[in-house]
Amino acid sequence: MIKITMRNHFLLLLFIPFLFSCIPAKDIIYLQGEPIAKKEIKRINNIPYKLQVDDILNIDIKSNDETLVSVFKKQSSNSKNTTIDESQMFFNGYSIDSYGNIRMPTLGEVNVLGYTELEVRKKIENELKKFIKTQEELFVSVKLAGIKYTAIGEIGSPGPNIIYQNKLSIIDAISSSGDITAVGNRKKVEIIRNSITGTEKFTIDLTQISAFDSDVFYIKPNDIINVIPLKQKTWGTGTTGLGALTTIVSLFTLISTTFILARNL
User: Which of 3.30.1950.10, 3.50.50.60, 3.30.720.120, 3.10.20.90 is the CATH number of 56-144?
Assistant: First the structure.
């Protein structure tokens, strides 16, 4: 009677991995489904980013007479090196301090906190006109020195990252951070966003093609991408049938050994 009971228990344990522990394919495949034909073009809700403390700006001032504007430009520490890297941007760019200011040659402190790139460009142009009275044409370029984000949780390469693009989708960001692990929840990826108005949290389902229509499909600078784990990781029984089976067999062996030793006592 004991052998039959133990055998039934063993068969039950064999089925547990396949019923509860295996991760279905639909939970790990990105952008499933067919795109829905649009009758009208939807305008992307791309609200201009407002600058925050510790952002770094790349500001370039040009004119027909370069000697005229040279006093307003920061001298590059390695002007001969055309390769862009994070350290170069840090030392040659304009970092926004805790008061929301950048410090420019001749112009001095310029407050840019809460401004967009376009607004900062116009503000600098107006400041330059106070010093330059001639009819020389000025060209001012203001760009954020890359899009910085931080990926945490079930991600291949967690930590901060900077992508030198004007626009960055969450798919690009996740790909650049080593992709989501096998036990990461692709159906509920969290995006934590800090702004001058406070902190917001959004979620996006990356397993559905409808993710392209999400307002948070394109991330903003300083976003935090948090990939929470699936329940399978909490259970600790493996992500595949074989892995779960190995765990269950080991557990069954331990129980059987304990039971046999207890009978012989």
Answer: 3.30.1950.10
Task: Choose among 222, 220, 57: nearest CA to 142.
Answer: 57
CATH, range 25-47+147-229: 3.10.560.10
Q: In the chain, which residues have pLDDT < 70?
A: 1-22, 39-46, 76-87, 135, 233-252, 254-256, 259, 261-265
Rounded to two decimals, what is the model's pTM?
Answer: 0.77
**φ/ψ of residue 168, rounded to 5:** -135, 120
Residues 6+ apart with CB under 8 A from 56: 89, 90, 93, 94, 95, 96, 144, 145, 146
Taking a C-beta distance cutoff of 8 angstroms, is the pair 187, 205 a contact? yes
Residues contacting 53, CB < 8 A, separation 6+:
96, 97, 98, 100, 113
